[in-house]
Write a structure and sequence with these properties.
By secondary structure, the protein is α+β, with helices and mostly antiparallel strands. Helices cover 37% and strands 29% of the residues. One of its GO terms (molecular function) is acyltransferase activity, transferring groups other than amino-acyl groups.
Length: 282
């Protein structure tokens, strides 16, 4: 077992899995990413592609932090976030995104900002939305699960969505094979949904991660020339129906505060705000 530091922080391993699941399970919807990662990797670093740090008090796990491409604080107080930040400052930055509940991200960022450099963008106060009942509107019957045969039209739509949302292409820096593999993986899992008309995607969304309790949606997109037609409202209702019937009873996502059209669409479907997230992107 790795020695715990003076701040009570150490990397977690498979022996800590049950304690971690209990901690993250205190808020299984907000922590769905962390729970999904833990269950699929058993907290083994070779499968995580990084580490999960735990903070202990009197021998009990009280907070955690996923440190991979994404740094995600889990059940972290101000004091916990500071302790994780101090550990993070002992090494060079390897993460591309800090994301999670607003207060924990803000507190963590406050302590590393002077060393980790200027981020490409910070998005504070992103509404975290949840629906755990049936949609309030009729589903689009033309939304379906995608298949590998859809990749010639689906993949360009995913690239367009990502580029518009993040501000850089997922193919930049020679990453096209990795991104294509991710899109293919989601399709193979049955986690990719789209409405395709005339060989063109006019609505799409994916499940990013899921547990038996909750599923988090990502990549909701309608091409610019088709916006304002209600495709996202009826499309998201269809996605909620699919997910609740076959994956998890609660569906969540987080959205940029400034994206009023998307927020109106999610509200029409029946999503309600339960928390605020923040994202720091490098």
């Amino acid at each position: 077992m790795t020695t715990t530091t003076r701040h009570g922080v150490r990397p977690l391993g498979s022996a800590d899995l049950e304690a971690f699941l209990e901690l993250a399970g205190q808020d299984p919807v907000v922590n769905v990413f962390a729970l999904h990662r833990a269950r699929t990797t058993s907290l083994e670093p070779r499968w995580l592609g990084g580490e999960v740090w735990g903070r202990f008090a009197n021998g009990e796990l009280v907070a955690a932090c996923h440190v991979g491409a994404n740094l995600v604080p889990i059940q972290a107080s101000t004091d916990d976030a500071r302790a994780f930040a101090e550990r993070a400052l002992t090494r060079s930055r390897s993460v591309s995104t800090i994301v999670g509940p607003h207060d924990a991200v803000k507190d963590f960022w406050h302590h590393v900002a002077h060393t980790w450099g200027k981020p490409r963008e910070i998005r504070w106060l992103q509404p975290h939305l949840v629906i755990d009942g049936p949609p309030l509107v009729e589903s689009d019957p033309r939304v379906r699960r995608t298949t590998r045969q859809d990749m010639p039209v689906l993949y360009p739509a995913c690239v367009s969505m990502y580029t518009e949302e993040v501000g850089v292409s997922p193919e930049s820096g020679g990453s096209s094979d990795l991104y294509r593999a991710r899109v293919t993986q989601l399709t193979s899992r049955g986690w990719s949904f789209a409405r395709i008309e005339g060989g063109r995607v006019v609505f799409k969304a994916e499940v990013a991660c899921a547990t038996n309790d909750a599923a988090q949606i990502q990549g909701v997109w309608v091409p610019p020339d088709r916006r304002g037609e209600g495709l996202a409202i009826a499309g998201m209702a269809a996605v909620v129906d699919f997910v609740q019937a076959e994956i998890a009873p609660t569906v969540s996502l987080y959205v940029n505060e400034w994206n009023e059209p998307a927020r109106r669409a999610y509200k029409a479907v029946g999503f309600r705000e339960t928390a605020r997230f923040s994202t720091v992107m490098f």
